[in-house]
Amino acid sequence: MKKKLPVDPVKIVTPKGHQIRIIKPFCKSCEICVNFCPEDVLGLDKDLKVTAVNPEKCTACKWCEQHCPDLAIFVEKANKK
Predict the structure, then answer these.
(1) Which of 1, 22, 24, 26 is at a distance of 20 to 30 A from 65, taking alpha carbons?
(2) Residue 60 domain boundaries
(3) DSSP readout, 30-77?
């Protein structure tokens, strides 16, 4: 059985079908994910929480997910059909 998160993540689906899920309350605005993103996909919103500012550039490389110290961002590559 899957455990339910205390808050639903923000789900962003890119034009290529990749999914970026961000748990805003977990984000501490450190910008590590923003700085590690090789495609400049991520940025901070008006609340200083991570968001996808250029989702069309996402390659689902997962660098952001792997480097987030707060476990606030998850990336799922689109299924190839």
Answers:
(1) 1
(2) 10-76
(3) --HHHHH-TT--EEE-TTS-EEES-GGG-----HHHHH-TT--EEEEP
